[in-house]
TrEMBL record:
One of its GO terms (cellular component) is periplasmic space. GO terms for molecular function: copper ion binding; electron transfer activity. Residues 1-20 form the signal peptide. SUPFAM superfamilies: Cupredoxins. The keyword Acetylation does not apply. Pfam families: Copper-bind. Keywords: Copper, Electron transport, Metal-binding, Periplasm, Signal, Transport. This is Pseudoazurin. Cu cation binds at residues 60, 99, 102, 107. The lineage of its organism: Bacteria, Pseudomonadati, Pseudomonadota, Alphaproteobacteria, Rhodobacterales. Residues 30-113 form the Blue (type 1) copper domain. Its cofactor is Cu cation.
Length: 146
């Protein structure tokens, strides 16, 4: 009795694991798009996909901005500054991310997971309250949301 559902669950797990993609975002002192950047700074991924944040230059991290990720999503924060940080995104929606030491220099990124735009207005509101380069770059990134 137990064997079949378990086998099915395992197969389903394998199937979804096989479909999940891994993406990479570099964290750079100087990239093609400017100083202190995530490249790419906007990425549209599917639920279950993993994004590996790679501090190609040292001294960068990745963290989610309070209230600017989907309601049920786990907070994101690099365990160790300067170490690659894999994040598996399961909750659909828009994620606003920063490099904590370089937020003021506009080192920000937007990840869109799946097709839900339920929290798009919340994120847009949060960005409207910012100033300077973070606001400028976030605004441009949010325009890329599909
Ligand atoms: Cu940084």
């Amino acid at each position: 009795m137990l064997k079949t559902p378990l086998a099915a669950a395992l197969l389903l797990g394998l199937a979804s694991a096989a479909q999940a993609d891994t993406h990479q975002i570099s964290m750079l002192d100087m990239g093609e798009t400017g100083h202190m950047v995530f490249e790419p700074a906007y990425l549209h991924v599917q639920p279950g996909d993993t994004v590996v944040f790679v501090p190609t230059d040292p001294g960068h991290n990745v963290a989610s901005l309070e209230g600017l990720i989907p309601e049920n999503a786990d907070l994101i924060e690099s365990a160790i500054m300067g170490e690659p940080m894999p994040v598996t995104f399961t909750e659909e929606g828009i994620y606003a991310l920063e490099c904590t030491p370089h937020f003021g220099m506009g080192m920000v990124a937007v990840i869109q997971v799946g097709d839900s735009k339920d929290n798009l207005e919340t994120v847009a509101d949060g960005i409207r309250k910012m100033r300077g380069l973070p606001k400028q770059r976030f605004t441009a990134l949010l325009e890329q949301v599909e």
